[in-house]
Design a protein that fits this description.
The complex is a heterotrimer of chains A (122), B (544) and C (159). Chain B has 544 residues and is of the alpha/beta class. Chain B is 41% helix and 13% strand. By secondary structure, chain C is an alpha+beta fold. Chain C is built from six helices and five strands. The chains are: A alpha+beta (122), B alpha/beta (544), C alpha+beta (159). At the A-B interface, helix 1, helix 2 and strand 2 of A face helix 5, helix 6, helix 9, helix 11 and strand 10 of B.
Amino acid sequence: MATIKSLDDLTRIRKEVLEKRKAKAAAGQIEVIVGMGTCGIAAGARDTMKAILEDIQNNNRVGIVVKQTGCIGLCEKEPIVQVVIGNQPMVNYGKVTPGVARQILADHVADGKVVQNHVILL
Amino acid sequence: MKTIRSMVLVSSDPISLQRGAQGVFDRLQAEIKTYGLDEEVSLAMIGDVGRHDALPLVIVYPEAAVYGPVTVEDVHTLVEEHLYKGRIAVDLQASNRELSGKIAWLNTRKGTLPAEQRIVLRRAGIIDPTNIEDYILHDGYTALGKALTESTPTQVIDEIKKSGLRGRGGAGFPTGTKWGFVAKEKSAKKYVICNADESEPGTFKDRLILEGDPHSIIEALALAAYAVGADEGYIYIRGEYTLAQERFKLAILQAKEMGFLGQNIFGTAFNFDLHIHSGAGAYICGEETALLESIEGKRGQPRTRPPFPTTHGLFGKPTLVNNVETLANVPPILLNGATWYRSFGTLSSPGTKVYTILGNVNVTGLIEVPMGITLREVIAIYAKGMKGGENFKMAQTGGSSGSIIPASLQDTPMDFDSFGKAGVALGSGALLICNEDTCVVDLAKVLLNFFRTESCGKCFPCRIGTQRAWEMLDAIASGRATLKTLDQLMELSTNLYNLSYCGLGQTAGTPLKDILTHFRAEVEAHIRLGVCPAGVCNTKEAVH
Amino acid sequence: MPVATMKSNKVQEAVNAAIDRHGVTRDELIPILNQVNQALGFLPAEALSEISQRLKEPRSSVLGVASFYHMLSTKPRGRHVIQFCESAPCHVVGGREVWETLQESLKLAPEETSPDGKWTLVTTSCLGICGVGPVIIIDEDVYGNLTADKIPDILARYS
């Protein structure tokens, strides 16, 4: 990425990134975001992440970007997984075991049905 | 807005609802109407009030009278006596064990986010910490760009001074003043250091920022360096935080690549280089002079002060040391202005404070709320009440060096000054909430075990005192102590405070003083009766 | 304080690698010791004297630093090191039971290594993962929300 030499550079880069993201969202990109802070990992986030990646591969699910984020500060609900489909608002899930993760991919990501009993309100 | 003279609140947590809170609410509505009071009295359901021994509760303001458990049959008397005749219906009042009635804003706060005013945590858990684009998209590096191109270092310091920001490491020293001390030193070489040796038991706010938003600390350190005239910085991350170290290493690489670190940042004459120093497992290195010793490759033992690090710090040069949470406040203050920052918190302690909520509560985790919120509110709103509806016995604040706060102080606003007046310490923001199954002697033993393990050994009051204190507590817990032990313990607490070299030893005695002040009867029961009232300690060795 | 020994050219290699990476400077003593400790599992007497010669730093001061920090060890450790958090937040939410179970299942007291060299059990101060306490760390793996009955399954994962 380009080196930034002035405030204008920064503003320009921010615009570019924003455009890029907007285009992806408009194209219906699906983002699955796993909370991978140390407490998330301690509560099993690595297993959840592994299950998500395996499930995507096993079922040939396409157009999904799997990302990680830090800890949001709701330790009680870890592991936490967030799902964003295109321009729709983000859905947050708590206590996502590998089983729940597979259910989220099958019902929510593939079928558009939110897995209500694991949704948490932030 | 219509003026009301009374506000009636009904608890509506799951247990209250199960015990007929809805019926009570409906009957209240009807009775208030019958008496023609519906224009002057407001009625609302308020969720969990954090007290579960007498549900459902009805609370009437402005008298703050607490009634409970209230049945549908009681409502008539309650409305007639309190709302119509204006006298408290004494027979219906809940026993006043721990309620002093200051839960006035519960209603307005209901249903708000777990951390509605996130300043330092605004990006944690939202952005991808491994992607600098995410940070830039969320206003990243704008404060730095603006400061470098539009403000002088003095203007930056003045803005921080005006904001009233105080150090979040525990002591609460005004940040702008500290920056000013380093800035006025005349030296060709100065350092800025971020203290990320977060080891205070129960505290992990810094880890959250480092793991979730590392670029905010890089930006803040660059701003601090610009303000005080430094060109090199360190971040001292504790050795156990491996994930935080990895994320930070990556962030530094990205920042260098894009020119936020290095030479001629934002095309100006400002240069800044940043290194990570990993701790190796020593709580004492959170003390700023011990931290400097550790970066220099020595045993982490505190230095004599004065001279202070602001004049003779790392390698003898003027050095600014700030805590992670303090620094995380800097970019938003410079971006939005001191006035904006002062709109949060209290007059003497502006801004927000990050608390970690732990222990016997329904929801553990981390919240960022304005300074001045009370413990009762934290438990009721953010922790969603005590686990299993148990009673709140005490809270231990600020990790091991904080205070043990009894239930009677739970309505004291949590800011530096109010806590100081009440004789307790805010510390680093950990709130360990305990129910009545927790024994104060056992808890104090765990805390003192921490201090005797972590004492660096430099000065003997701390090295020997913490060990002796632990032995005395062990004697109390196992029924071997006499009442004289308690006097010795109190004396030891005072001596630790007066004679120790640094903060570790000085605060080690606080739990001793606290349990003897607030829970003397419980401690004495171990000795006089050979019984642990909470059923935790094994006093079988007692000989009576 | 006893410092264990290790007769092997591995010591030399580890010290060389660490000094090459961090440089011949006293300021880097802690990172050097850290790297050697990771490579060898502990800091044997041979490594300490080698480092002291290379950095021209008294052996007493190298040992002083090596024995000061919890993450550096002058005793050999087992293949797997279990760190149990003994601070108050984990203690009040059931840490005591977990600690007793750990000691019983491993038949080890704190700071001990099993005779077969598999396990070392140590206590540690707060690890900052209190929200999911009680917590243990085995090598680099973090386990949270522990109860006594989860211990056997977790231990069985290590060979």
